[in-house]
Amino acid sequence: MEFDRVQTIASLSFDKEAIPLEFIRPEKEQPAITTFRGLAPEIPAIDLSDPDQEKLVGLIADASKEWGIFQVINHGIPSGVIAELQGAGKKFFELPQEEKEVCARPPDSKSIEGYDSKLQKDPQEKKSWVDHLFHRIWPPPSINYQFWPENPPSYREVTKEYAKYMRDVVDKLFTTLSLGLGLEGHVLKEAAGGEQIEYMLKINYYPPCPRPDLTLGVVAHTDLSAITILVPNEVPGLQIFKDDHWIEAKYIPDALIIHIGDQIEILSNGKYKAVLHRTTVAKNRTRMSWPVFLEPPGELVVGPLPQFINKDNPPKFKTKKFKDYTYCKLNKLPQ
């Protein structure tokens, strides 16, 4: 099957101190104007191996309520496995355009899986400075290897290895988040889909940009997932909206960045907060990130858990199938 050729950001000329107009964000979004420059609080960093379970639960619950995001260290995924994942992803995006398009998203696809360079459906038709690859990595029945690169040859093996380690981290996060709400440890994971939760890997590739002050890699949003587990490279760029300021996330080698997504906010009836975040780009360096979105299966009905609803706390969100929530979110329709 042949796919329409798309002009990617990586093929643009970077020798001019200018970028196409469609990449320039409105002033209220431009990083040079809106990034907080003062002394800002740092995103909580939490040791996931802390033997004091009560302390760990409290730290993660507090971060999820106040920030909607935190970083974890000593999470159990070997640094070598993370390095191999990053190396394989980097090699893929350095391939010639024709080779990347072998696993391109078909133009008529209703799924987001595949290689593409047009992530944002912005009402102003502004473009974001990013190329990306999406594909599911777990559970096995949900995987479509059509969208897994065969080049570099190591890609599939290292991605499978990463997914294997990721499962233990996912279970610990769901358990801890449940306990932090006063629930039994299994409740949140089961409510989000249990063993049918789909792990959607996305690789973001943000090439050098001549005017990083004017554009964004990804515009401000919350994730439609339950939880997002992200590995960045060493180039900063993730920003969090906190206390009316855009705050840059500190890079911690080998840490995982944990985002609370929309579905956990819904299940907790707003007790945990989905984090509003965006991505900036760099002038002379390539930024990359590897988020894994933990998503309920499409037919699963998600809504506020009954434990959090009473006469004083009515449901803050509608109950609906995840696929319907996704459709509304991606098409910017009311939920």
UniProtKB/TrEMBL annotation:
GO terms for biological process, alphabetical: flavonoid biosynthetic process
Query: What is a single molecular function from GO for this protein?
Result: flavonol synthase activity
Q: Which SUPFAM superfamilies match?
A: Clavaminate synthase-like
Enumerate the Pfam families for this protein: 2OG-FeII_Oxy (PF03171), DIOX_N (PF14226)
Tell me the ranges covered by the Fe2OG dioxygenase domain, including all copies: 196-296
**Magnesium recorded as keyword:** no
Q: Which cofactor does it need?
A: L-ascorbate
Keywords, comma-separated and alphabetical? Dioxygenase, Flavonoid biosynthesis, Iron, Metal-binding, Oxidoreductase, Vitamin C
In terms of InterPro entries, this protein maps to: DIOX_N (IPR026992), IPNS-like_FE2OG_OXY (IPR044861), IPNS-like_sf (IPR027443), Iron_ascorbate_oxido_reductase (IPR050231), Oxoglu/Fe-dep_dioxygenase_dom (IPR005123)
PANTHER family tied to this protein: 2-OXOGLUTARATE (2OG) AND FE(II)-DEPENDENT OXYGENASE SUPERFAMILY PROTEIN-RELATED
The text of the family note is:
Belongs to the iron/ascorbate-dependent oxidoreductase family.
Report the protein name in the record.
Fe2OG dioxygenase domain-containing protein
Q: Where does this protein come from, organism-wise?
A: Populus trichocarpa (Western balsam poplar)
